[in-house]
Design a protein that fits this description.
Low-confidence stretches: 50-60
CATH architecture of the largest domain: 3-Layer(aba) Sandwich
Strand content: 15-25%
CATH topology of the largest domain: Rossmann fold
Structural class: alpha/beta
Number of helices: 12
Order of helices and strands: HHHHEHEHEHEEHEHEHEHEEHEE
Shape: elongated
Length: about 350
């Protein structure tokens, strides 16, 4: 990573001259000298580490949060909890909604690092972090939220997540324990690490019970562009209607998140299917709405308030103690199955013809 002395050498000036340009003290400087410094900064992709300066001086600093969309109540709650955690520690938070688009995430991260923000919490659970590697090489500290990002070479400084696979496993085991043998999955496109983990957990539960998992019952987004974060409820409604209209429909549904589950309630109601008498539904996240729907939703709880505190603490530690990522920077939390009224024994649906 280029430093101030590298910029000075390329521009043919002193380090103090570079510092004057960076800090807006170039009023008496010759225009051509200032221009050479700016060109060297651009060529070397040099970013002044204002976060480090603020930490040394004791001043507040800023953390970036890049999430899919606050339109999803889960991410809205997470943003609020992370903002509270940063404020308690004397930091500020900038929230960016990127809809899991790598180009948008990269653009936001570029803007943040260009403003001296050297720590970012990323909530999109991407399959890799290649789109941020150049920025990480320039000193950006990335904390992955909602996925365990310890794979070699990712460049991620720390991560906090529930065990996604275990969450899917607990959901399906609960339904299998109620006698369900045809279990569907409603989710957005399975192109994130968190969704892959949850689906894999359902498959593992079937394998352990000696029950084949019917891959045709995995409904993922219905051709939606992007990842469906903002359309979860409507996609859940569409998906459950498609699954229940099949010749051999599922008797239970595991949903990728609670918004899909709430949409599934509406789709079942459209078809006159009662919950849980004719269809059991399990969500994921335990958002506030899950207790308010009727019947209350059985779901997988993520301890989001504790996770928010943890990811902020880890990221601040990484900013203060920059170095190679340590194993204890990567936290995987056990999720909790919350049983409510949306699940029950498997029963044959009556013939409605």
């Amino acid at each position: 990573m280029a430093g101030i002395h590298d910029v000075a050498k390329m521009a043919g000036v002193s380090a103090s001259t570079v510092s004057n340009v960076i800090n807006g003290r170039a009023g008496k400087m010759r225009a051509e000298t200032r221009q050479r410094v700016l060109e060297a900064i651009e060529a070397l992709k040099f970013t002044p580490n204002s976060a480090a300066r603020q930490l040394k001086s004791g001043h507040n600093t800023t953390i970036g949060l890049i999430i899919p969309s606050v339109a999803n109540p889960f991410w809205g709650a997470i943003a609020h909890q992370i903002e509270q955690a940063t404020r308690k520690r004397g930091y500020r938070l900038l929230i960016c909604n990127a809809e899991r688009d790598p180009e948008v995430e990269q653009s936001y991260a570029e803007t943040l690092i260009g403003s001296g923000v050297m720590g970012v919490i990323l909530g999109s659970s991407p399959l890799n972090f290649d789109h941020l590697k150049d920025l990480i090489a320039r000193g950006l500290q990335v904390a992955a939220f909602d996925q365990r990002a310890r794979e070699s070479g990712s460049g991620v400084a720390c991560s906090v997540s529930v065990d996604q696979e275990l969450g899917g496993l607990l959901s399906a085991q609960h339904l299998i324990g109620h006698g369900h043998r045809r279990i569907g999955i409603l989710t957005g496109p399975v192109r994130t690490n968190s969704r892959i983990g949850r689906v894999e957990g359902v498959r593992i539960a079937h394998a352990r019970a000696g029950i084949p998992f019917d891959e045709s019952l995995l409904w993922q987004g219905g051709g939606v562009s992007g990842f469906g974060d903002m359309q979860g409820a409507e996609l859940g409604r569409i998906g459950v209607r498609e699954l229940l209209s099949r010749e051999n429909p599922p008797s239970a549904i595991v949903c990728g998140n609670d918004m899909f589950a709430i949409g599934a309630y509406a789709g079942a109601r459209d078809l006159g299917v009662s919950i849980p008498e004719e269809l059991s539904i399990v969500g994921f996240d335990d958002i506030a709405l899950s207790e308010l729907v009727f019947p209350p939703l059985t779901t997988i709880r993520q301890p989001t308030a504790a996770m928010a505190e943890m990811v902020v603490d880890l990221l601040i530690h990484c900013l203060e103690e920059v170095g190679a990522p340590r194993e204890d920077n990567f936290v995987n939390i056990r999720p909790q199955l919350i049983v409510r009224g949306s699940t029950g024994p498997a029963r044959r649906r009556p013939n409605r013809e």
